[in-house]
Amino acid sequence: MIKVLKSGFYTTIQDLGRTGYQEYGVPYSGAMDQQALKLANALLGNNEDMAVLEMTMVGPRLEFQCATLICITGANMQPKINNKMVGLYKLHQVHTGDVLSFSASKSGFRSYLAVKGGIQTDQVMCSRSLYSGVTKDATVKKSEELPIEFFEGGTNNAHAALKINTDYFNSKTLVVNEGPEFQLLSKAQQIKLINFEFHVSSNNNRMAYQLEESFENALEPIITAPVLPGTVQLTPSGKLIILMRDCQTTGGYPRVLQLNSTSINFLSQKSTGQSCLFKLLNSK
Amino acid sequence: MGFKLSYKVFGEQGVLVEWPKEISTKILDDVINFKERLNTSDLKNIIEIRSAYQSLLILYSEDISFEKEVEVLKTIYDSEEKSSESQSTIWRIPVCYDAVFGLDLEEMSQTKNLSEEEIVKRHVEVLYTVYFIGFLPGFLYLGGLDEKLSTPRKASPRLVVEKGSVAIGGGQTGIYPSESPGGWHIIGQTPVDFFNPKNTPPCFAKPGDGIHFYEVSLKTFNDIKVLVDAGVYQIEREESHD
């Protein structure tokens, strides 16, 4: 078990989410930065879709009640084992009673903690990802105990480490394709949309990132239609909303752009005030 | 069959098929028919098909060649084969319109100049059509609301709408499948579960099905609630005759 001593700002359990339930209105969920999740699992020799802790802005304080091997990826929340700083993208053997703590993030916004064999909470609809209304809780709570498997003897490969270029935390560029309603924008609007530097508003979470600047808009709402993580919606008041992993399955605002999967990972490491710039691919 | 469809790239692994921009049961039938023929045509690279009022989103397990997949889709749409007549079901849903649940019934009665009884009568008289599920897990988009009951959404939404609340927002009526914030006018509550992650599938209703509401007393509501909570309540159904 891992005992949660302090829950942090917003800590959840995530894997690669739920596919195949969207026709029932169930969001995909899953790790916001899926590259960070997959890397952590890969370093541990786990399956890429094993469940991890996703920590946002300020990480939790955790006590291990059995030995295991861990790996931390994504944002740098200055992780410490028993008050000693440890590195990211490395394997660490922990023992019964060890305390893993995090502080505020120094770079990036979401950090991932993976353990050998994955977190073993119950699956709901083929996934352990927390989502209110599907799972009992929406976040990891103080005093909760998270089941994990005992693992010892990882010292042979404890030197495995990865040099990761985390420049993507600072990269402004979000690669996009045209959304279904892109062609309804005027040429001038299309050009403005992909040449303007937008900023992430404080209204950002696992469901969606709203951008700060208003964008002149004359498009009417559409007949409610499917949306995806990465869909950029334009509201009647001219706000741009980028849907993220916990987004609803359908929406009624024009879908002007679509982020590719790498850019969803990039954006999920951004927080309030950071800038982004759309780069349009394969314009038809 | 026979609508002029448009095909668009949507996401890295998706094709969006769109029907004319209108809401009608004729289009709904065609959307469902196409979806079913795709489901039975055994295209191995399709992992998910989602429908809405006038669109189908087809998602593939890998990056696709858009032109090639659209050719395959067009061939299936144009083939004369009709899907093996889908079974649609009409569900009978008990609703208690008592003031305990119908929080906005009195206000609606005043603004619409209709008695509460008249609102309830008009609400239960109609056979609603399930267009698709979206917004929240298990939230049915229903068509068919009596125009006289159409009411603009509340200026400021409630922070908490109870699970099972039956409500009217604009020209639509719906059931909140779980507790959530909401800006619709609440006229009653049903004890029936519209979404249960433990069931396979998690929703009993599907696009194309019908929904008939009927009025129950507070006592009957509570009796049914006990059965629902114990997991033994059987939702009533009428045979569909089309």
UniProtKB/TrEMBL annotation, chain A:
Presence of keyword Zinc: no
Keyword annotations of the record: ATP-binding, Hydrolase, Nucleotide-binding, Transferase
Domain annotation Carboxyltransferase: ranges: 23-284
Highest taxon of source: Bacteria
The keyword Nucleotide-binding is annotated on this UniProt entry: yes
GO MF terms, alphabetically ordered: ATP binding; hydrolase activity; transferase activity
InterPro entries per UniProt: CT_A_B, Cyclophilin-like_dom_sf, PxpC
Name of the featured protein: Biotin-dependent carboxyltransferase family protein
Lineage: Bacteria, Pseudomonadati, Bacteroidota, Flavobacteriia, Flavobacteriales
Automatic annotation (TrEMBL), chain B:
Domain Carboxyltransferase: 5-205
Domain of life (superkingdom): Bacteria
Enzyme class: hydrolase
PANTHER family: 5-OXOPROLINASE SUBUNIT B (PTHR34698:SF2)
Protein name: 5-oxoprolinase subunit PxpB
Presence of keyword Hydrolase: yes
EC number: 3.5.2.9
UniProt keyword Hydrolase, yes or no: yes
GO MF entry, a single one: ATP binding
Native species: Pseudotamlana haliotis
Keywords: ATP-binding, Hydrolase, Nucleotide-binding
Any matching Pfam family: CT_C_D
